[in-house]
Amino acid sequence: LSAGAKMGCFTFIKVMMILFNLAIFLCGGTLLGVGIWVKVDGQSFVDIFGTLSSSILQIVNVSYVLIVIGSILLVIGFLGCYGAQKESKCLLMMFFSVVLIIFIAEVAVAVVALVYTSLAESLLSAVVTPVLKEKYGVDDTFTHIWNTTMTKVHCCGLNNYTDFNDSVWYNTHDGTYPEQCSTLAHLHLGGCPVQGCFDQILEEIRTNAGVAGGVAAGIAALEIAAMAVSMYLYCRLDEK
Known about the structure:
Blueprint: H1 3-40, H2 42-49, H3 51-59, H4 62-86, H5 89-115, H6 117-135, H7 140-153, H8 168-172, H9 179-187, H10 197-207, H11 209-237
Helix pairs in contact: 1-2, 1-4, 1-11, 2-3, 3-7, 3-10, 4-5, 5-11
């Protein structure tokens, strides 16, 4: 290619890099804002997004996850956008390094999730069950989220009703279980045990595994493309 064509190609890719990372920056800001909103008013989040959102809130603290992801996207968007605009090799290399670290971490998490699924489930149960015992019936938002989940998903506790044994609720309500568990137990007198919410949530996740896998693959492809473009700009700056 002629020098003019190379320069035109460089300018085009630079502009695309700026626009792409500007979009990432704005998405990061949006996620950060939503994370703060969920942290301040989690009940409204459940009311708007329904049962699935309440199920997700049982597994992870959505507010912190969104705040962390939003902050990371803000940093990545800033480094990529400003680095391309100023043609800064330092910022472009920082952008490449951050995206590479995130990509490696995502691959590692995916491998661990696939290979050590049972271990991950055990660890999750060990973390969530004590919180359920301590906060159910004490924290109004937390209690509302669990009640919504148990009612709409038709489940009781994380693993089963015994998660409420020796809980704050159990001890302050004369050894009784939440109304949702009692109702389900009555409906399952035919012999079918009442399932815990964890199994139901996993079933929802498995049902949508194809969509989740497609989204993950798309994100990975964008990360690889972003790294390739940033390295192209980095190398071309030496030739200018």
